[in-house]
Amino acid sequence: MTIQLFRNAYSLRAALTLFMVVPLVSILAITGYLSLSELEKQTEKRMQEDVELIARAIYLPLSHALEQGREGDVKQAINSAFRIDRVYGAYVYNAQGKKVAATGAKEPSMQSHELTQLAAEGNRRGQYGEFDGEEIYSYFVPLTNSSGLIIGLLQLTRQGSDFQDYLGQVRWQGLFLLVLLALLLTGVVIYGQYRAVGRYLAALMNTMAMIEQGDRTHRAPLQGPRELVVLSACMNNMLDSIAHSEAEISRRRAEQSALENRLRQSQKMAAIGQLAAGTAHELGTPLSVVDGKAQRLLRLRDLPLRVTEGLQEIRDAVKRMEHIVRQLMDFGRATPLSLHPEMADRLAQAAVSQVRDEFAHAGMQLELAGPHPAPLMLVDPVRIEQVLTNLLRNGMQASPGGHVRLSWLQEGELTGFCVEDDGPGIDDDIYSRLFEPFFTTKPVGQGTGLGLSVVHGAIEEHHGSIEVGRSLLGGAAFYIFFPPLPKPLQGDYLSDKRRDSS
């Protein structure tokens, strides 16, 4: 708990205060204390020297007056010293310690033998003493005659409170200045920390908070001192790297999911293809036998009309079964492509020629359209004709007695075909299942659900794409696009055509 509270309170501002202001104030306090102590000593010494200076000034007049026995001159001399504010009292004693003259508010109580001893020593000295509870500083000067013999003693006093009051005033002033300086330093550090670092750190923390709330696009502003700019730039780079990594991971997951789906689909299609190919192979021979038997019976003469119609119905049913078998075999076929440059209009005409009779029998309109000259495509002609034939039959079944259009396209470098009809169109909810094997919207017996699967597989083998939309005729539209034909192949094809024409 204590550690947590310390961590919460230990901010950059607190750290600057702790490691800058506190050491500076401590150094100033120690320096101030030492300086103040030295100042006190110097001040006390100067105040003592003031008393000593006064004593030296009246020393000679007092010595001469005391030697001559002129007490009036002695009193006049000490009175002149007392009139100086720095002196608290002035006293003159003879060699036996008897007081000769005195002036001042109070007289210090000193024994005569002490005074005699001080005079006998012959040295000037100062000392502190107490009188009536007050501290008094006394300065003693021996008085000598013209022969150098000690004849008396001069005592000048000054209240100790004069020293203490002045020194106390100096101490309080020093303490006040120290506190004021500490407050100023703290204020300067706090303001400087905010202006130089704090506001930029606040912006950086705001950026982190926004990112934590989910705004992954927000970035830290590049402002402030160089170190913070570098820190913000590094954080932005890190966020960009994380975003890029997440996008890359998402992309790879999507690719992996797509590959897994394609693998499952391929495995399913392979299994279905094998089943379809095997089924078609097993059905092909019996159907051929049935059709052959029916055909031979129809060659017989004098058959009843009912028998002839029955045999023809058998042959029609066999043809439908053979068509289903061919679709099954096409679905299960895994033959490699044989790619050649081909003109789009030729492929369209070849496909139309295969179904023209069916359209005419159904009373439907089959239209060919496209730009001229038609675009060149790199395709397997047989497979693409099969694709177009399946789509045309699909349109014929979707719009009985209606209109079907086959057109070739060129959009930039992409080329392709569009097969559209004027039928009811395709519901949106079945778009995703449209190319699944055996999926059909036709009634039972009218479709196998393999036609669009064969179309989709052939287009994928060509590395193309197929899209479903709404036709201008009102029904469905199937758009097929192929990759661009390489330029060298276009040149070779055109050169061959020119040689053939010449």
- Order the strands across the largest sheet as they lie in space: 2-1-5-4-3
**What would you call the shape?**
rod-shaped
Q: Architecture of the largest domain, CATH level 2?
A: 2-Layer Sandwich
Summarize the biggest pleated sheet: 5 strands, antiparallel
CATH superfamily of the largest domain, by name, is: PAS domain
Structural class: alpha+beta
The percent of residues in helical segments reads 55-70%
Task: Give the SSE map.
Layout: H1 2-9, H2 12-68, H3 71-82, E1 89-94, E2 99-104, H4 112-121, E3 125-131, E4 134-144, E5 150-159, H5 160-212, H6 226-298, H7 305-332, E6 340-343, H8 344-362, E7 365-369, E8 376-379, H9 381-398, E9 403-411, E10 414-421, H10 451-461, E11 465-470, E12 476-482, H11 487-501
Parallel strand pairs: 7-9
Antiparallel strand pairs: 1-2, 1-5, 3-4, 4-5, 6-8, 9-10, 10-12, 11-12
Helix pairs in contact: 2-3, 2-5, 6-7, 8-9, 9-10
Structural description of this entry:
- The structure is a single chain.
- With 502 residues, this protein is α+β, with helices and mostly antiparallel strands.
- It has three domains: 173 residues, 2-Layer Sandwich (Beta-Lactamase); 88 residues, Methane Monooxygenase Hydroxylase, Chain G, domain 1 (Up-down Bundle); 165 residues, Histidine kinase-like ATPase, C-terminal domain (Heat Shock Protein 90, 2-Layer Sandwich).
- The protein contains eleven helices and twelve strands.
- The strands form three sheets. A five-stranded antiparallel beta sheet has the order 2-1-5-4-3, sandwiched between helices.
- GO terms for molecular function: ATP binding; phosphorelay sensor kinase activity.
- It is found in: Membrane.
